[in-house]
Design brief:
The protein is an alpha/beta fold and about 325 residues long. It has 13 helices and ten strands.
C-alpha cells in the first residue's frame, strides 16, 4: 500500500478520528494541527516554556501509530498522564517528550519529525504555525456581544460566535505545512471543534490561500453533535455559513455529513450555494455518542477517494 497524498487538518479528538480513519488507506498521510490550546498540560507548558502547545500535536502523532505492538505501546506511552501531588500532576508524558525534543533541536518541525521516527508513525505531523496562537471571538449572548480570548474560553463560552480572530494575526507558517497542502491529492478538513479547530485554519492567510487552491480536492467533514458548547444554538447549516463568511473563496468538492442531519433543508441550501456535493452517511459510533466511528468514517473516505479520483489510490480501494 502506498496510496494518495492526503492532508488532514484540525485538532483534538476530531483530527484523531479522521487520521485513524485515513491511516489504513494510505501511507502518505500528513496532519496539520492547530496551535492555540491554552488549557491543561499544554497550556502550562505553553506559559512556562513559551512553546507551541503540544497536546493536539501529540494526539495526532498517537493516531499515526500503527496497530502492531510497537505502535500500540508508544500510543499508550504518549497518552500517559501523571497523577501526583507535585508539579508533574496532570502533565502528559507525550507533551513532555515533545517539549524536550523541541528544546534539544530548537526547531518545531524537526522535533515533531524526531518523535514520529521514534513512534514509527505512518505519516507526518506539522503545526499550523511555529508560534502559539491566541484565538479571540465575538460571542453573542443574552447580554449582547462580548469579546472572549483564549481557546478554552472560546470553546466554553455560552452564546453564538459571530466573529473570530487570532494573535499574532500573521504567524509564521512552516514551508512544509504549505507544501503539504499544495502537493496533496486529497485534503480532509474536520471534524472537530468548529471554530477553534477547523475554522481557525482560514485565519492564517498563507494556509487559507492553499486551502482555497485545493478546494476541488477537499472533503469537509461536518460534526455530528448538536449540543457542544462551542456551537450551542447552531446547526450544521450555521457551521457552513460561518465558514463561508470567514473564507468566501473556499468551495469544497464534497461536504460529508451524518445521516442525522439529512432532514435539514437549510444545510442543502448552504452547500448548494458552494456548488459542492453533499453526502450523507451513517458515521455515528455504535454506542450512540455523537462522535464519528473510525471504521464508518474510513469506509466513506475510501469511497470518496475513489470517486474523486485521488492519484495513487491503492488497488484495494478501487472496488
Amino acid at each position: 500500500m502506498t496510496g494518495p497524498r492526503v492532508v488532514a487538518l484540525g485538532g483534538g479528538h476530531g483530527l484523531f478520528a479522521s487520521l485513524s480513519a485515513l491511516r489504513p488507506l494510505t501511507e502518505r498521510l500528513t496532519a496539520i494541527v492547530t496551535v492555540a490550546d491554552d488549557g491543561g498540560s499544554s497550556g502550562r507548558l505553553r506559559e512556562e516554556m513559551g512553546i507551541v502547545p503540544p497536546g493536539d500535536l501529540r494526539m495526532a502523532l498517537s493516531a499515526l501509530c500503527d496497530d502492531g505492538e510497537w505502535g500500540r505501546t508508544w500510543r499508550d506511552v504518549l497518552q500517559t498522564r501523571f497523577s501526583t501531588p507535585g508539579p508533574l500532576n496532570g502533565h502528559s508524558l507525550g507533551n513532555l517528550l515533545i517539549a524536550g525534543l523541541w528544546e534539544r533541536t530548537g526547531d518545531v518541525v524537526d522535533g515533531l519529525d524526531w518523535v514520529a521516527k521514534l513512534l514509527r508513525a505512518q505519516g507526518r505531523v506539522l503545526p499550523l504555525a511555529i508560534e502559539p496562537l491566541e484565538i479571540s471571538a465575538t460571542v453573542e449572548g443574552v447580554d449582547g456581544p462580548r469579546l472572549v480570548r483564549g481557546q478554552v474560553a472560546v470553546a466554553t463560552a455560552n452564546g453564538i460566535v459571530s466573529g473570530l480572530g487570532i494573535h499574532p494575526s500573521s504567524p509564521h507558517v512552516p514551508a512544509a505545512t504549505l507544501e503539504s497542502i499544495r502537493n496533496a491529492d486529497l485534503v480532509v478538513l474536520g471534524p472537530g471543534s468548529w471554530y477553534t479547530s477547523v475554522l481557525v485554519h482560514f485565519l492564517v492567510k498563507p494556509v487559507a490561500d492553499e486551502l482555497v487552491a485545493a478546494s476541488d480536492r477537499t472533503i469537509l467533514v461536518l460534526n455530528i453533535a448538536y449540543d457542544d458548547v462551542e456551537t450551542s444554538g447552531a446547526d450544521r447549516a450555521d457551521d457552513v455559513r460561518a465558514l463561508r463568511r470567514i473564507e468566501p473563496r473556499f468551495r469544497p468538492a464534497v461536504v460529508l455529513a451524518d445521516v442525522s442531519h439529512g432532514a435539514d433543508p437549510l444545510l442543502k441550501v448552504e452547500v448548494e450555494a458552494w456548488g459542492s456535493r453533499l453526502v450523507f452517511a451513517n458515521m455515528k459510533r455504535a454506542d450512540a455518542t455523537d462522535r464519528h466511528d473510525v471504521d464508518r468514517l474510513a469506509r466513506e473516505f475510501s469511497h470518496l477517494i475513489e470517486e474523486l479520483g485521488a492519484a495513487g489510490a491503492p488497488q484495494g480501494m478501487r472496488g
